[in-house]
Amino acid sequence: MTSPDKTLDHRLHSAFEWILERLPSRVGERVREATGGRFGIGSQVVVGLGGGVLLTVTAIFLCLVLMSYLNGRQSEVAETHMPALVGAFDVAQRSAELVRTTPRLLAATNPVQLDSARLEAAHTDVSLRAAVDQVMRAQAGEGASAVVGASVVPLVDSMVDIVDRIRESVGSRMGHRARLEQLEERLSTLTLEIQQLLEQEIDDQEFFMYTGLRELTDSPAPVSRRTTITELDHHGGLLNFKAYQNEVTALIAQAMTENDPEVLLTNRERIETALSKGYGALDKMRPRVRANLELLVAELEDLYKAPDGVFESRRGELAEDARAEGLAARNQQTTAELVARVEGLVGGAEESAQDAAQRSSALVQMGVWFLLVVTAFTIAMAYVAWKFFGERMLVRMGALSRATRRMSKGDLEVQVQLEGNDELTDMAGALEVFRQHAVEVQRLNLVEKLAAEVQEKNSKLEDTLENLRRTQQQVVNQEKLASLGALTAGIAHEIRNPLNFVNNFAALSSELIEELREELDGENGDGDGEIDREFIEELLDDLDTNVVKVNEHGMRANRIVEGMLAHSRDEAGRVESVDINVMVQEYAKLAYHGIRGTDSSFNVDMIYELDSGAGELEGIARDLSRVFLNIVTNACHATAARRRDEDDSYFPSVTVRTEGRGHHVCVTVRDNGTGMPDDVVSRIFDPFFTTKSGTEGTGLGLSISHEIIQEHGGEIEVETEPGEFTEFRITLPRKHYAAAAAPS
Asked: Which of 275-284, 422-431, 616-625, 628-637 has the lowest mean pLDDT?
């Protein structure tokens, strides 16, 4: 039985041959040459696309005819009314932007803000003038609307002029304010100098009047000499001058913030009066003191009265404020008139645009219906083409795809159907050839052979990886042992101190207990005496203090031991709260005493500058302690190396500093050792890089320290100068990333 697909293919091929026979011979030969003499997929696609293109070109031609008609109707709206409407709205918007510029100018507090507001005003002015020109060009033949547009230009010019004058006024006011701020700083400094001089002289005079001594090594002067008119006048002049000087300073400070010009003039008269009284008080003082104070008072008077002094600067600032307010009021009036004219301009443009839009609405509706009809016809033709060509083609391609997937899964017994006379038939034939070749390749068992080779290479790679892992662990353990060795000598010294304290306080407590027993035994022995409760309370208080001290130093020894144990463990540390000052100081001391334990001639001045605000941070205490121990140890080694190369004038020192910076803490270790050249600095954090000779270092200390700081979310930086110093700066966040990421 013949399938429908084969019957359809035969009919299509027969129809194709019938068409070729009736074409002109030359055209028929070219078509036969291009198609291979069959109505294949390529020919079907060409016919389908050609029909679609022909249909599309026809629809486009009809649309162009309609659109040319619509274009004639819409040109009036697009070229006349819409530009006028858009320009009118643009004029309204730019006018509002220009109005908003004035408050920004008045509110500017620095030149940057002032220039920014002025540039915005200039940009808005250009845009506004361009919008007005656009409206005037669009309404050139519309009489009243064009007149309204032209009347906006003078108002825009007036507003721009007012904005420029406001900017100049605000800029001048800022200059006066900047000068007042400088004068305020100078007034504070000058006032402090006068007060310090006065306080010193008053104290010296009162000391002489009560003791008769000018200097501690002098013999006391008699009372009659202490209370002479000269001494009393000098003392009184100092006190009076202090009062007048305080009054002058307060009045000058008041003048810097005075907002009433009349009160500012009154303030000036009061200052001149106080200065006059101050000069009068100077006449009663001794010449040396009077000369020093006269210079300071003259500078204070010049600070207030100079052309660029406090009075003139503040008066100029108030004048510029008044001028700016006047200009702002004038700008409001101009703004109201501009808004009224712009509203009329927008209203006229809207009416013209609405009228033109209503005239073209009918044409647009007709065009929509035409496009709907053309679209429906195109969809119908596309559906017919799909049912005739596409659906049948997809069925054959689906069968070919299923056969290909089954073959890719190893089913080489699948049957590939060969039917038709087109490109899909050619692909099915090629797939059948591939299936036969695959069956032959499967017989050769190449897959098993390749698998064996891959397994052998994987085994070699695993062995190499295991060797590398063991080598890395050995190097890390060596670095830990080196760090632990540096700790051992320091631990011996550090733990001896708290133990000595414990022994001493324990012995002292025994003596206090013996005294307490003697006191109690004395009472019980004769039966007539009374217990000295106050003495017993003192003994008990001392015992209580000793017990607290014993506990404190015992806990300190325990912390040292726990720190050493944590430092030597291999398991991963846990995040905990760390007092950075305590940790840095403890491990700096351990580093110092560790070197002392191996080299008794070593000595360095350890300087601690610990910020009380450094506080605590979250981190892995074991890892952070290893970082601080390593860096301080390197600093001590650098000073020791420089000491060996220089004479006795060199004093080695290591400075350890902490600083709290909000959400971060900074730890700085600075030594005055040998320093490092640039080629060494660029490599100090590289693994296995070391400048120490022999087996003194593994080259992993700074590399591991750098990795620990990065794991804590921090940074480590180095600054150095060969032969002068080296400084490491470690910045750590207070919140550890592991704790921050943990669920609450």
From this structure: 422-431
Q: How far apart are CA 52 and CA 55, in angstroms?
A: 5
| Structure-token pair, residue 586 | 């403890």
User: Does 494 score more than 70 pLDDT?
Assistant: no
Residues 6+ apart with CB under 8 A from 23: 31
Residue 667 contacts residue 596 (beta carbons within 8 Å):
no
For residue 1, name the pLDDT band (cuts at 50, 70, 90): very low
Q: What is the pLDDT of residue 743?
A: 45
What is the C-alpha to C-alpha distance for residues 278 and 270, in angstroms, rounded to an integer? 12
Asked if 656 and 668 touch (Cβ cutoff 8 Å), the reply is yes
DSSP 424-470: HHHHHHHHHHHHHHHHHHHHTTHHHHHHHHHHHHHHHHHHHHHHHHH
Q: What is the C-alpha separation between 590 and 455, in angstroms, rounded? A: 53
Contact 672/725 with Cβ under 8 angstroms?
yes
Residue indicated by tokens 């004639």: 72
- The average confidence (pLDDT) of the chain is 74
CA angle at 237 for the pair 233 and 242, rounded to the nearest 5°: 155
**Element holding 57 (H helix, E strand):** helix 41-76
Q: How many CB atoms sit inside 10 A of residue 729's CB?
A: 16
The full DSSP string for 307-346 is: TTSHHHHHHHHHHHHHHHHHHHHHHHHHHHHHHHHHHHHH
Segment 516-568, tens digit of pLDDT: 777 777 655 445 556 777 878 877 877 778 787 777 767 766 666 655 555 45
Task: Please give the distance of CA 667 from its chain centroid, rounded to a whole number.
Answer: 22
Model confidence band, residue 744 (pLDDT cutoffs 50, 70, 90):
very low
Q: Give dist(CA 50, CA 57) in Å, integer.
A: 10
Q: In angstroms, what CA-CA distances link 225 with 209, 220, 222, 228, 433?
A: 9, 10, 5, 6, 135
- Which H or E element spans position 365? helix 310-385
Share of the chain above pLDDT 90, in %: 13
* 591 and 634 Cβ atoms separated by less than 8 Å: no
Integer Cα distance of 138 and 131 in angstroms:
11
Rounded mean pLDDT, 180-205: 84
